[in-house]
Amino acid sequence: MAKFTRSSLSRGTRLVRQAVVAPLQAIATALGSASIGKEHLSHAYAPFRINLFIPTVDSELYEAWTRPGDTSLCIPFVMPPLQDAFDTSGKVGQSTPTPILDEVSVSFDQRSEPAMITDRHRTSVLTAGRLDFNADSSAYDLKLSLVSKRQWYFDNTQSDVPDREVMSVDIPGVAFLSAIDRTNPFVLTGLNRPVNPYHTYMLILESPGLYSASATYALPALQVSFKFRYPLVSADTEAQNFPTVTGSTKTYTISNPASASIINATPIHNNVKVLDDALSNKLQGGRNLDGSLPANTQLAVEDCYTVYAIPMWSNFGNRRLIADSDQLLYHFGIPAAPLNHNTDNYYDRHVIPLSRSFVLHHAFACVNRCGPATTSIPPMPQSTPPSSGTMSHKIGVGMLVGPQADNFTYQQVAYQDFTIASKVGYTVDRISSSPNQVMTTAGLSGEGWNWEVLNLPLVTVPADPGTGYYTQGKPIYMGRGTSLSTARSHCGGNAPANTDGQESHLEVRWRIEDPVGLTDFAATFPGAAGSTADTYVGYGGHWVILIGKTPLTNPGHDSTSGLLI
Amino acid sequence: MASLRNFFDQFANKTTLDGNRLDRLIRDVVAKFNAIPPKHMAKRWVESRYIMTLHPPDSNATSSNQDKLPFMGIDNWDNPGEVEGAIPDTTGITNQWRIKGTNVPAIDIEDMAAGDNQYAWTSTLYLDQPTILDGLAATLYANDGWVGLIEDLFIIVQVDDVYLREDRDLSQVAVYKFKATPTSNATPDVTLQPTDNMDPPVDLDAATPTLLNGYWVDMRHMNVPLPAKARVRVSFVVSRYPIVSGKTQAPWALNPWTVTLSVLEGITNG
């Protein structure tokens, strides 16, 4: 909807309704039809964050580093438009919402001391986590970059290497070593960089000083946060598992004086008072915590773009999971003895609470194949992608009711099973950190890129598909409900969803399996791996990226009656 | 007639009703509704989530592969186990007790017997604008034959002092959950176990085939305001008891973690 307009009063002429009443009527109509859009708001953007947590980055990642662009920590992510704005040609039009990068921050744990933290490669595992006050400050020199490339899905002839730099900053190690005031977190604000929503972005952290022949260091609890802003968006009207309860609007009546009537202050004042009261009572929009709607709504834009970046397999095993049967491959825990690598599968799962409703639009899996050659104990080969045709990554997202609840059940919302042969049908992008990167070698699979970004299609009813990179369902609503909001539309093939409008958490699972065996060709554990270096989980782990909408909200508890907070 | 609360010009009977005042009022009304400030919106916050997961490394002391990072000793002191090399004379240890309120029986941090200690994993966030700390959830799984759980878990959220940011004595404690004994199951009724109707399936332990089991803490709607330019530290402290106590050893190594921190950030202009 366009901005409101008015005509200035011409002096010496008859006062007409168009000058006095029409502007007020237009505003009243917009309020009464929930049409107050972002063009009417002074603050029409909402922030969202891409938060990337890595439990530990240590020196083995940089042992093979010899020049800029070599082995580095790299993590990709994507921020495509929501389904209602998605263009399968990848063109950014005038109406395509565009994220704007505002702020970047990086932090790690130094035990609150002006010191560096040693890692396990210095002497033994027992040396990890110690304070070293005497190190050369250059050991903590960091270079943080955010780069991007057009996605393989839109152009599969281009290089895997990003060709655009969004931002880059060199942080000297001395910034982290002052006893009085350390720059940890290190923050850059006010960046104001628009980014292309159809690109893949990659964080690259170069910290070669962590490794030297005489001393090795770590960055424990590394946290990198990219803060973007995004225009407020309208709520979904068609989604799976959507609350069927409808909202209501309020009528704002502007009286229209009769033609040739005497101009009187009272009706003019009363007309303006109607709008004045609307402001004082605050404009309503956005679902309440239980999924119900306010008593009456005035806003047309009441939702925000949001991203859940979920690290999977982080810190698992030796910070990488490779096919070497001599490595310690532990299944999701510490059993009394190592499991049979060939008959037991490896899976990771994480449950995330839903404190507010979330409408899932896209889901992606970022598959990590990174790992440099190291001479550390134990020595590790340079990673190669798995080559077994029977190996698969099975990745699923579900919503559930169960924790702290009386009922317990799951409803699948996204799932895909990827093999070497099938993944091309879900590939969004292939990306490497740099041309001279030494993180991944092609190996028997012939694939030398560091990361793959794969689409996890949302469950769907075939007759009513959604929009996205590949065939998938419409957006899926998930959130807690009361009697006001538990009645929901269908979800996938279920009507209603198994969770019956009571979702309290979402769960992400990632399973790696090979019926022929995950290990290499060692006599004890023969398997289908091409070599010892076949890497099922690269250094730092995989990621699942969920893109969707969350409503505007307020802190604390809000009521279901539409009362103001 | 009640006054207009959001506009300057007021109209009342027996007062001047001239074109200038009328024109100005209509202008102000249109201008206000073309740039409605956040104070006139009932909901003006949006949730952001920090999701942190952690698979603990192997606790086998003879393994050369593993270590306990990001967990580190809770006490910064001049001890060969905590410091590599010499401590500078000029500054020394500046924050021996960087996290407070974590004392547990049977562990004397300043006089530790062999094998006991407390360890902390601390993640630090920076929040440039005023923000509201809304939720903090931590799940620690106990699946597939786990032999024990973390005991006496502490969850502490601190905000650095605005003037002396590196002096942890001055930090404000925003959230403090202490001595939690994580023996609860995730579901109140352990017999209420559904068919695992989500793919991919989860391998269940034959002895305790529960889909969700472990430690759950889920603090919601805490409504803790955080100032602008806040440096926020979220710490998880676990205890390693002496062997003779019979309690959990190597607690950092027994549970995969899922931590979800939720903050509310205000809407912004372009």
What's the short version?
The complex is a heterodimer of chains A (565) and B (270). Helices cover 5% and strands 29% of the residues of chain A.
Any overview of this molecule?
The complex is a heterodimer of chains A (565) and B (270). Chain A is mostly beta strands and 565 residues long. In chain A, 5% of the residues lie in helices and 29% in strands. In chain A, the strands form five sheets. In chain A, strands 1, 3, 4, 5, 8, 9 and 11 form a seven-stranded antiparallel sheet that branches. In chain A, a hairpin with a 7-residue loop joins strand 16 and strand 17. In chain A, helix 2 packs parallel to helix 3. The longest helix of chain A has 16 residues. Chain A is globular. Chain A starts with 16 loop residues before the first helix and ends in a 14-residue tail after the last strand. The C terminus of chain A is likely disordered. With 270 residues, chain B is mostly beta strands. In chain B, strands 1, 5, 8, 9 and 11 form a five-stranded antiparallel sheet that branches. The longest helix of chain B is centred in the first third of the chain and has 15 residues. The radius of gyration of chain B is 27 Å and the shape is elongated. The two termini of chain B are 38 Å apart. Classes of the chains: A mainly beta (565), B mainly beta (270). At the A-B interface, helix 2, strand 1, strand 3, strand 5 and strand 11 of A face helix 1, strand 1, strand 2, strand 3 and strand 4 of B. Strand 5 of chain A pairs parallel with strand 3 of chain B.
Helices and strands, with pairings:
The complex is a heterodimer of chains A (565) and B (270).
Chain A: H1 17-20, H2 22-32, E1 45-58, E2 73-78, E3 100-107, E4 116-118, E5 131-132, E6 142-150, E7 164-171, E8 186-188, E9 193-194, E10 199-206, E11 217-231, H3 265-280, E12 303-312, E13 321-322, E14 346-353, E15 358-368, E16 392-401, E17 409-418, E18 427-431, E19 451-455, E20 476-478, E21 505-513, E22 535-537, E23 542-551
Antiparallel strand pairs in A: 1-11, 2-10, 3-8, 3-9, 3-11, 4-5, 4-11, 6-7, 6-10, 12-23, 13-22, 14-21, 15-19, 15-20, 15-23, 16-17, 16-21, 18-19
Chain B: H1 19-33, E1 45-54, E2 72-73, E3 83-84, E4 117-127, E5 131-141, E6 153-159, E7 172-180, E8 214-219, E9 224-226, E10 230-240, E11 257-266
Antiparallel strand pairs in B: 1-11, 2-4, 4-10, 5-8, 5-9, 5-11, 6-7, 6-10
